[in-house]
User: Fold these one by one.
Assistant:
Number 1:
Amino acid sequence: MQVNTYVQNHIVIIGVEGQIDSYTAPTLEKHLQKILDEGNSRMVLDLEGVSYVSSAGLRAISLICRAARQIEDGGDIRLARPPQVVAQALRTSGFDQVFRIYDSIDEATARF
């Protein structure tokens, strides 16, 4: 798994490539927690390059999302551009009801 981070309109964009599974989920969770600890509670997770996400990956993302939403400045993690297989995993697990999912990064950032 590779993670690339940049800032767009005061929102942290995290591009993920590869698989988010039980081996890589802890690394992603630590990366997201570090961003949150640095005072950045508004994030977009760009999933375009993700080929697979497991329940461990969804759990890691949801933990940080919950923490971000508790911050009073409107913190959240939005998901953008999930491939078909990832979108299916989100629907099957019911996480499409937990996360806000967008077709583009621009749409996700505009909704903050």
Number 2:
Amino acid sequence: MTVLLISILTGCLLVQGLFWLAARKLGLSPEMGIGKSDDLPAISVLIAARNEAQHLAVFLPKVLAQDYPSFEVVVANDASTDGSALLLDSLEKDYGHLRVLNFPHKKGEGKKIVLQEALRMARNEWIVLTDADCRPCSNRWLRGLAQHFKPGTDLVMGYGPYAYGQGWIKDFIRFEAFMTAVLYGTFQRFGMPYMAVGRNLAIRRDCLAVAQESEAYGSSPFGDDDLAVQAIARADNTALQFHPEAWVESVSKESFSAYIMQKRRHLSVSRFYKVGHQVVLAILGAAQALFYPVLVGLLPGNILTCAFFFVLRTLIFAPACLARMQQLGLGDLKQKVFFLDFQFSLYYWWISLRLLSLKKLSWR
């Protein structure tokens, strides 16, 4: 049994070590600053909103106030009953580049249907997706994405952190979003783009249309971001934009149950990922999930061996993770990194159980 546990720990250490060494070597830092040129293509920003009046009142003006030469914002009001229609009507009168599409009756589950309608109404080649409960971290967000709009590039993936909040739940939500960004950012650098966050994603109009017609995209009411990436992303047609001025910050869920529901919707589309992506992500997830339980199981009678594995993993994991945390706005959580890392291992156990027992989900 001891030999088996040591073998598992060795495998976990090897997988995680290779990943974090790669994450540290490749880095996620911006390759260049955000320029001031006005020679940029026109953009259509698409937002699907359902009962988001409170967030729209605060965040939509920040989207509309972007320092960008030519853009429109198309908001699809998805059968809201909270006064969103009145708010959007008022904002539409104040902002000439805001266009509101009202859908008084829900046409189906999820937001994909209204996003498809919004895409048909969009006027520009480049589409930027974000959410109603998000705010750009600067008025140069669109410029940051647009500097990657080059021949041969079809998709630009941005970073979407969660807003600061007090309590371990919000700490973990922020850390999980950070880890997700490290994963898809590192994989993009490796030439294996597999997902992005729909609150900060730019994609060519014709590519998004192709993605929306794919079999996987139509198989689930959720995953408009992930499945679009799965449908059209390649090693040579994607770019990464993690400059702080190009971040889009999202409001943290107020309860753990609301966060779990959100993650369940995300997990429900992972079965549509390419097989290779599923395999690699499963190996990484298993390495994260197994390390601590196996270490504890080996502890009786093998204290020095366990100390060796823990120290070795720490020497590989901590420098790379702490550097990325500082870079991606989580410097205040660095002292909690080991506690959050342990929670993240438990989170992977939860993922495994949820993938085996997913039930019907709802957007709201």
Number 3:
Amino acid sequence: MNANIVKALGFLICVSLVSCNSVKPNSGAKSAIADPTDNANELMSQGKFLESISLLEPYVASMPAGWKAREETGNKITIHYWDQGEFAQCFVTDALASKKVEAVWDGSYSRAYYMLAFNYLELKDAKKANDNLDRGLALEPDSAIILGEKGTLYQMTGQPDAAVTFFQKAIDTKGCKSDRDIGKAYRGLGISLIDLEKLDEAETALYTSLKYSPDNKIAIGELNYIDKLRGGKPKQPLSTELQKTK
């Protein structure tokens, strides 16, 4: 989203709701290191996980003491959004929930920890991935995307019971979450329930995931797999129409 549009949206919300002090793209305590998360994300998309880590680790090491993704001081709540997209998605809800919100998108350390965890998972280092997820959750305990990634870690390390717990936490969190986050969490929940041989519950979770991520090939593939386990025919033409009948 264009930065000027985001600023205008924030201003209009403030005026119409009379519920926020200000919307600031650059505010709050800052690291001496410029936010590298966009560049690190680009490296991740290219499979350059070690290079991404090399940008992120110095950044989180320079995090100001006491930084939190959501900080309450006096009559003000400051929310550090991950980026302009999250601001546009979440600010209206946050502003309606409180009449003392100040929105900031000046770099998020919880996002950086999540990205470090993602990189380490890709490099098959579950311990470092888990350590970074825990640090991210300490800063932002209601983050659906971090909770979901914790579920993915447990799924990848053969711990489906723990995976189910964290995918359910991602679904239930009161923090702002996108349809993509919810769809991914339900999808992960369904796969873990298959591993636990709870096929009816898994099927329900996977169909629910399609409401948030229509026609997702992974979800459809897992539903086909459930049918094979039951000896039924695969649901290849499933997609959005069949999910409406469930």
